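Per-record layout

source: Carnegiea gigantea
name: Pentatricopeptide repeat-containing protein
length: 528
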Amino acid sequence: MKFSLISKIRLCSSAKHLQQLHGFLLTTGLHHDNLLICKFIEACSRTGLSDYGYSVFKHKPRPCIYLYNTMIKSLSSLHSSAQDAICVFNNIRASGLSSDSYSFPFALKAATWLLDVNVGNQIHGQVIKSGFVTEIHTAIATVKMYSAGGWVEDARQVFDEMSSSNDVALWNAMAAGYAGARDMDHAMQLFENMPERNVISWTTMISGYVHVNQPNKAIEIFLRMRAEDVKLDEVALLAALSACADLGMLELGYWIHEFIDEHNLYKSVPLHNALIDMYVKSGNIRRALEVFESMEHKNVVTWTTMITGLAFHGLGREALGMFSRMEISGARPNDITFIGVLSACSHVGFVELGHSYFESMSSKYGVVPKIQHYGCMVDLLGRAGCLDEAEDLVKKMPFHTNAALWGSLLAAARLHGNYVLAAKALGCLSVLEPDNSGNYSLLSNTYAGLGRWNEARLVRKTMRSSSVKKLPGGSSIEVNNAVFNFVAGYVSYPDGKRIYEALWGINRQYLHAPCKSEINLWKWRDQH
């Protein structure tokens, strides 16, 4: 009968089934059986009813260590119940029992959820006293706990004590600890020395480089992963798409899109959201819209990415039309959605509509405006020529002003020839961003546009005397899954000789007289 009941417990898939089964256990006296209660708690956890399982556990007199471990495992699976898991773990010793190799990993996982290194340190102390230091699952959980709390050196010490272990999960945990601490040098060193790698090893490195804003490195690892025929999973694809978006790598982005379709990953909403983001940032708004329209299920990220993408490309009316579709669909916008909406209003000059959306954020959707939303409103008012209203909004907003706000005012002042406001904005920006040459250039151009040449020269002179250097222009190009960056005035590029020889040939073919670019080529040839 017991084994029959265990089979029925495993088949439970709803609260109603669990309640009926619990009633049967109570009326038959089987609720005293530790094994059946363990299986019941596991079923509760599996169906998202850990609280119900915990209430059953608390009414169980004299639980065995297996039941304690089952309960701790269930509670440690969620952040919301991690503190309860620690309480159950502490009750093990109070009941006269001893924690075992199953107790510690689950308790350490709960401490990781809580980001409480003090609690984790106490559990680690018990691990040492109990002689489970070399137990692999406990060691992995300890490394993760210390890493999550920011104590990476302690995590490394635990890892080094297990140096004879070739367990890939342990090595992955340590690499993830370094990546989470933004220490990709040590993470890469560990990765290269791994006795064995799995897909998690690779995705840890790709995601880590994306996290520290080194997309080129992320793509390099992704291409190595492909070359070694490692099976690509969703996490790797998401991280690679994020790197492609940062670099504008359409060629590799197209390949990933084809891979997603070929391997029937088209139902993954996060992957398609990442595709939309990649196409938007890489300049192909048409393909972004194609992906969007092909999606059967859309979430708030889907709608928001498309709205902000359209606004970013200057398609304000289309972005506002997309927002109307979002409202009709029943999806609830968030604070990022409204940044896209307000930016769209700015692009098309819809001042009144922008005001309406700004007000409805909190009144209709309960979204409290942040400084970014005020920045969008300042940009909207500034572009429309409402400079006094824009400046007044900056003064009245419930935040300290930042460089972005004063930068918007400076750009608006330049657009409408208001040198008084431009000078005031630069005064604030010179404190907030003393090394930003663009601010000085904007004010100088404002004076020049009004024919006030003396003031324009004075601004340039102030810029030079303050040792503010104008940043050189730059561009990039993707060739064979690699991005090459070019900076004005810099000539020592890889394959530079071949590049300049090609340019030399173009100039000689199409130009009759030497122009500035040809003279520069002569100078380069003399230098090299």
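summary: The chain is about 70% helix and 0% strand. The chain has a mean pLDDT of 84.
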